[in-house]
Design goal:
The protein is α/β, with parallel strands linked by helices. It contains 13 helices and 8 strands.
């Protein structure tokens, strides 16, 4: 091969690599770039150890049951996955029903706006986002309702990301983000005119603890809506395949134990809420929420190649490959949970804090 052909081939390979990693990198349009993947607040050299530590929680089930350890375990999980989620999914860390003719972005926004419409808040009122992630829902909700949203997340790295996105979106005057535990919130009682939580309370070891804390900080008469991760009426505990799918979902999503749909309203009533409405938003006529996961398979395979290359050349932390592999498997368990109908990530409950405690 003469030198011209050699240079051309090298140029083509370099161009293809650049396109594969940098241009095609963000699986979602305008998402985080593959080159920026990090371990959140964990330093690059500790990502692998933290990944192993994450798994050790599942090897010691007693520990996971002890409520005090769960927030730390969830925090570690979000240090490991936040950048990958943003890169490959976007800024809203939840599912939504597929809407024919609409993009994922629009379907996501519609699902978020529905939450704030349900709690009936007025512009300028104060609302709580319990478990806010990097604030995708918070920004859509603030823009739609003009309410003042305060989000809380256990993960410091997500606070930084959320604040950055709020500022870039010009919504920092409506959106405030706090790092803290939603089982013990740094807010006075009767502070908020409404509250919502999107696919977040599933991380609480006991639902009662997070619901009673949300109840405490809400004003009497105000509304709370939650999209809960549950096992449905189709789930059979004795079915080995069902058990395998649910365990796969718990392990790949930092869940101390998925709860049954039956426990949700019972818990809400137990802490003092009046249940206004309860509906599984995944049920027909809604179109499958898992179709986005299924359609993305080719992109996830491509993402894996990108992660392996970036890890090998030292751009992404070493443990990123393990984390990505775990998420790849999780996508499969979630899809199986959706297809079999034994699992729903959007069991909606709307509750009111009574005007008087004794009501
Ligand atoms: C509510 C929670 C998170 C729900 C979803 C936002 C995430 C659940 C599984 C995640 C993903 C799985 C596969 C990844 C893929 C292999 C990668 O290349 C790109 C990112 C994924 C698509 C990733 C994105 C976020 C999820 C869909 C839980 C934690 C309570
Ligand atoms: C799957 S993400 C959903 C985020 C956001 N609701 C969204 O839809 O984009 C779950 C969120 O709950 C938060 N979370 C979990 N346990 C928490 C706890 N004990 N206290 C505060 N936040 C918590 C996580 O940090 C994360 O931000």
């Amino acid at each position: 091969m003469d030198s011209v052909a050699l240079y051309c081939t090298a140029g083509l390979i370099a161009g293809a690599l650049y396109w594969f990693i940098c241009v095609l990198g963000p699986a979602e349009r305008k998402g985080k770039r593959a080159l920026d993947l990090s371990g959140g607040s964990i330093s690059a050299e500790n990502v692998k150890d933290n990944y192993n530590q994450y798994w050790s929680f599942f090897r010691r089930p007693k520990e996971i049951e002890s409520a005090e350890k769960v927030p730390d375990f969830v925090d570690t999980f979000y240090n490991l996955v936040t950048d990958i989620y943003e890169w490959g999914w976007g800024q809203s860390f939840h599912f939504s029903p597929h809407i024919p003719g609409k993009s994922h972005k629009d379907a996501t926004r519609i699902h978020e706006e529905m939450a704030v419409d349900l709690i009936n808040v007025k512009p300028g009122q104060k609302i709580l986002d319990a478990g806010c992630g990097v604030g995708g829902p918070m920004r859509a909700i603030a823009a739609h309702s003009k309410a003042q949203v305060t989000g809380i997340t256990i993960n410091e790295y997500q606070v930084q990301r959320a604040k950055l996105h709020n500022k870039k979106a010009g919504l920092d005057s409506l959106c405030n983000v706090v790092c803290g535990n939603f089982l013990k919130m740094p807010f006075d009682e009767n502070t908020f005119d409404g509250a919502y939580s999107i696919e977040a309370t599933c991380h609480a070891p006991k639902l009662e603890e997070v619901y009673s804390e949300i109840f405490r900080v809400m004003k009497p008469g105000s509304l709370f809506v939650s999209y809960e991760w549950v096992t449905t009426e189709k789930y059979i505990d004795e079915d080995e395949e069902h058990k395998d799918v649910i365990q796969g979902i718990e392990r790949g999503d930092a869940l101390p134990g998925l709860r049954s749909y039956k426990d949700i309203a019972a818990t809400a009533k137990k802490v003092g809420f009046e249940v206004v409405k309860e509906k599984d938003l995944a049920k027909p006529p809604s179109k499958p929420w898992w179709s986005r996961l299924k359609m993305g398979r080719l992109a996830y395979w491509r993402n894996h190649v990108v992660v392996v290359i970036l890890s090998a050349i030292g751009v992404a932390p070493k443990g990123t490959v393990d984390v990505h592999k775990m998420l790849f498997k999780t996508a499969d368990y979630l899809t199986r949970g959706g297809e079999t109908g034994i699992f729903s990530p959007m069991h909606m409950i709307l509750c009111r804090k009574p005007e008087k405690a004794s009501e």
